[in-house]
Design a protein that fits this description.
Blueprint: H1 3-14, H2 37-40, E1 61-64, H3 78-83, E2 89-92, H4 109-127, E3 132-137, H5 139-150, E4 157-163, H6 185-192, H7 194-198, H8 204-210, E5 220-225, E6 245-249, H9 250-253, H10 261-266, H11 269-279
Helix pairs in contact: 4-5
Length: 294
């Protein structure tokens, strides 16, 4: 195998993946446009289009999965967590590639943002809410910023909470800097999995996304990061700048929290507590190591 092909293997396997071992129902297909029934059933009762937002939580929460993930497996813990706190919770699949089932978030990010736009409209129409809140993991915490900035999403979104989001591109601990030494490798990566190439630090997509500022008026932004992130590196690149931004390093709240990139979004109850605080800041409570049992 040529050296540049060997380089692509770890890039494609690790770059911005939110879960190394995802499992989904055998009935799911890459082209199915609707949420899978398991998301509303055995996975905790979300994607319920009959859900009526309460006075306490008047905005539905749309969960946006990460790269190589999907609308069910990325949220098996967080969706029930939020549902149990009285939120109407929804999740979508986006960025599907033809012939690639289960592993989504691989298509062009601008097109994925268009899919998010359609989905948010669907959720707002079903719930009667004027705005939604978005919570995303990895690419799912960054991609909505394109929707907010370029597709009119700011008028329909109150808050964006990013868990380990790739807001300014990743160096993948320096691995992406090797691409120029392998002629044709980046072109192949772009053709095969566009979202991976777009999430590399310095890409044309990242440059456009962040030109003129990280945020848009009218939206509250929260970033939850871990210093042990091995996928979005350096981890400080996840943080945003702006007047309505809260950047959270999880180890400042609980030094004992060793979660890395995937676990921060999949199972970390301390991160989940910060998500709940971000969605309802008027009733926020301190996040500590004890929040793991909350």
């Amino acid at each position: 195998m040529l050296p540049w092909k060997r380089l692509l293997r770890p890039l494609a396997a690790v770059l911005l993946a939110t879960a190394a071992t995802v499992t989904v129902p055998a009935t799911a297909t890459a082209s199915d446009p609707a949420p899978r029934p398991s998301a509303a059933g055995s996975a905790g009762g979300w994607n319920d289009y009959d859900c009526e937002p309460s006075a306490a939580h008047p905005r539905p929460v749309v969960l946006v999965h990460g790269t190589f993930a999907n609308s069910v497996d990325n949220w098996l813990a967080l969706a029930p967590y939020l549902k149990g706190r009285g939120y109407c919770v929804f999740s979508l699949d986006y960025g599907r590639l033809p012939g690639v089932p289960f592993f989504h978030g691989l298509g062009p990010i601008d097109k994925s943002a268009e899919q998010l736009s359609v989905y948010v409209d669907k959720v707002l129409a079903a719930t009667g809410a004027a705005e939604a809140d978005l919570v995303g993991h990895s690419q799912g915490g960054m991609m909505p910023r394109y929707y907010l900035k370029f597709l009119g999403g700011a008028a329909k979104v109150n808050a964006l909470v990013g868990i380990a989001p790739n807001n300014h591109g990743t160096t993948l601990a320096g691995l992406t800097r090797l691409l120029p030494y392998f002629p044709g490798a980046e072109d192949l990566l772009t053709a095969a999995t566009p979202a991976l190439a777009q999430q590399i630090a310095g890409s044309a997509f990242m440059t456009r996304l962040n030109a003129g500022g990280d945020t848009v008026p009218g939206v509250r932004y929260t970033v939850i990061a871990t210093r042990y992130d091995e996928v979005v590196t350096p981890y400080r690149s996840q943080f945003l700048s702006g007047s309505d931004v809260t950047n959270v390093l999880i180890q400042n709240l609980c030094p004992l929290d060793l979660s890395e990139h995937a676990l921060l979004g999949l199972t970390d109850r301390i991160a989940f507590h910060e998500v709940a605080n971000a969605l309802d800041p008027a009733h926020a409570t301190p996040t500590t190591c004890a929040s793991v049992i909350g």
